[in-house]
What does this fold into?
Amino acid sequence: MMNDKLYMAIDVGTTKVCTLIARVSSNAELEVVGTGVAPSRGMKKGLVVDLGAMQESVRDSLKMASWDLDRELPKACVGVTGTHIISEHSSSSLNNGHGDQTISLKEKEQVIRQSHPKVAHDQELLHVIPQSYHVDDLQGIRNPVGLSGKKLVVESHAIIGEAASMDNVVRAVEGADISVGSMVLEPLASAEAVLTGDEKEMGVVLVDIGGGTTDIAIFSDGVMCNTSVLPVGGFQFTNDLVIAYGIPYHIAEDAKLQGGHALPDEVDAEEWVEVEGYDEGMPYRIRRRELCGTLSDRASELLRLILLKVREAGLDAMPPAGVVFTGGASNLPGWLELAGEFIPGPMRIAAPTGLLGLPEDLQSPTYSTSVGILLWGIRHPVEQESYGRQRRNESFKKGRHWLRWLSKFIGTKD
Ligand SMILES: Nc1ncnc2c1ncn2[C@@H]1O[C@H](COP(=O)(O)OP(=O)(O)OP(=O)(O)O)[C@@H](O)[C@H]1O
Ligand SMILES: [Mg+2]
It folds into this structure.
């Protein structure tokens, strides 16, 4: 047990913060040994808007996940999302100078490194995902290592985020005295937890409908080739009820969870949804079919936006493996049936399963991203200095440089 390696994932979401700790034994057995879920305070649409509140939420979930572990906690892998995320195509080529030699792993790594796009000072490169390679005139190669040729080209998909937004997530975690080891784009993480290898090969659209955002990732030939983020999630569904019925947010949320359905015709026209308020007064009563009508309008709009994003990605038809929905808001009853009215082809709602030690209530679409971040951290180990410290050092250096310049300018010593 003491030789097992510990891994930690922190999913800083709009509605919840979920911390998962797992151990991997020397014979590669993975077991979840700590889980903690705390309500998220201080985040909107995937962005930290109140750092202090967010740090408290992270601390709460961490305390829950680690209370009976008497070992030092590892660095965390943390998820990133939000509409500040952009993706860019990049490519690079390398001349294999020594004639008709075979391409080595070193050259493959070098051409990938060269394809890293330059980002502005207020941006941060999150991932560079190689899509395919060309060796001389041969195109569409998955792995060029071992092939012979004079010229190697890589086509990559780069994911770039706003440095300040990512920094805020790092700070929220560091406030709980945890270092961030690596960061992962949330839909890329969710994919680790819920997509099969076949789906990724055939081509599939992964749609993660969370609290504040809907993250879309398209996979083809085994790799992610497009991502986008819509600023719509479960929060907006609930907020529509707040506006339509003039009720407080927590009442609307309860009403949605109790009686929500994406197809109003499926519910009894005479049925009422009743939610108790905090005080002794009368419960709030809403006709269930009306409530579902409001939710259905929002759901239909979201489905149209998803289709639009898929088209914007250059797909004129749904890929063969169709759509895989996940995320908390995909729990809305009737979701799949409604989606079928808008989107052709196969579709399913996915949850993370089959992980040793994962409590049953976490085997829900709500926790796909959390489990995915954990799996990503384990499958993509990075031996790097703490992400936060590295960044802070850089800005510290920049700050000192600026101070020196300033002191020269005003004639004082630094
Ligand atoms: N049965 C249900 N019916 C409808 N909505 C549901 C249901 N269960 C959960 N939700 C909604 O799912 C949302 C939370 O989803 P999730 O936990 O995936 O979000 P998050 O990770 O906190 O947010 P994000 O990833 O957007 O930052 C909430 O808005 C909640 O109302
Ligand atoms: Mg989420």
Observations:
- The pocket of magnesium ion (ligand 2) is lined by residues 11, 13, 186, 210, 369 (CB under 6 Å).
- Residues 407-414 have pLDDT under 50 and may be disordered.
